């Protein structure tokens, strides 16, 4: 059993995920469209091929103890100087800045290798560009190294020339001074020093002049791309899926907020005066009647007791066995038929004789109860048959009889006074009368009959009823001060499946409650069938005649004509 307390509970994680489960199709569609859009956008992008050349960088010069800074060298590869040289090798007139932007350099970890990659719209152009930049870099590095050696050698030659000139001057002094003079000895010492310096510089110059510049080498020639590196189909696909997922989630959330259908009891408009009496699942087999020992059967037994008390409270006294209970749905759906059949079984289990009166001409309640009536309420009101002849025993539920809608004209309203007189007759021979009517949103029968009912039960079926349907139904009953006992929430089959998984308990597919023997209500058949519409009174007090297949030709001429009706006819209908 449940009350309106469920209506004011805070939403659980399942409630937040529920809208996603309900709108999965929209999210899936958005993801699919995003994936197709991403691949389509990728197809419009120009293809770019990348070729890579690996260059081994060596130390140039005589000092091999200093390691090459590869980060600096990678910037040299992308310099305008190397770009000019590469453009000259490629024999193109493309601006250097644009050409350099197509080059990328990476340094593999713990190596002295530069990976020079070049982007181009064709495979051949990518290979030539990568090879050209690698060769231009090596040539530029060799030229810089050779220039550095030349500068060092020139400096040494200049220094040797200066020292040689000084040595010649000192040699002249030595020759001019006496052998035993102090100045001559000093000149000789200076001569020796200068000679030693010149020899040292010559020893350094000779290896410098013999140095061969080796800036590096190409380890692997420009690779041939197996396919375009851009556009990256996987990247565009993932991006499209991500964008589609976000848009799908946003759209599903917005659509769910705009959807007023009720998916669980928390979405039912909260009313302190209209409690939620119970929330039950409805399986796929709508004709199944829950057994008394099942969980659903016990719930309907509890609901039976509550409605019995509610009927007595509405009368201002204790429960009465002859109080009529009106059951209607907030919106058209099979839930009312499910509830009526199970409530009838619950009342029958308690030893009561039950009569179900169905006023909805579109209801499939007779078929669900296994009854094929030939007469019904419309025939009784029209005076075509007696009330006892229109009652049919329900074979699957002992002690329950059905008064089907019969030939009720859905275009006109049901005469409440006539139905009230029939209820008096039924309550004289039955212990409980259940009125099954169309939803208040479809017909006015529910509002009109709620005036004469002892209690009204509003059935709210999830995934079918909307919040405005519930509000409108409650408002219509309240306007005539109908005794609305509360609401019964019936979960749709999908919700019922989840409930069965959680409880690990399935509802029975067939049940025949065992109750004490009751006096069966009379059942009668008809020898022939006919197509007719119950006579009704229009606004001018005239009777509307309809075709009767058993009438003669003279009666057929009166089809569609109107004839005045006296007060006795009105009294007969009532």
Automatic annotation (TrEMBL):
Q: At the top level of its lineage, which domain of life is listed?
A: Bacteria
Going by the UniProt record, its keywords in alphabetical order are: Cell membrane, Membrane, Transmembrane, Transmembrane helix
Kindly list the organism's lineage: Bacteria, Bacillati, Actinomycetota, Actinomycetes, Micromonosporales
**Family membership:** Belongs to the CpsC/CapA family.
> Does this entry carry the keyword Transmembrane?
yes
* InterPro entries for the chain: Bact_polysacc_biosynth/exp, LPS_length_determ_N, P-loop_NTPase
Q: Does the record bear Ribonucleoprotein in its keywords? A: no
Location of region: Disordered = 544-574
> Any idea what this protein is called?
Polysaccharide chain length determinant N-terminal domain-containing protein
GO CC: one term?
Answer: plasma membrane
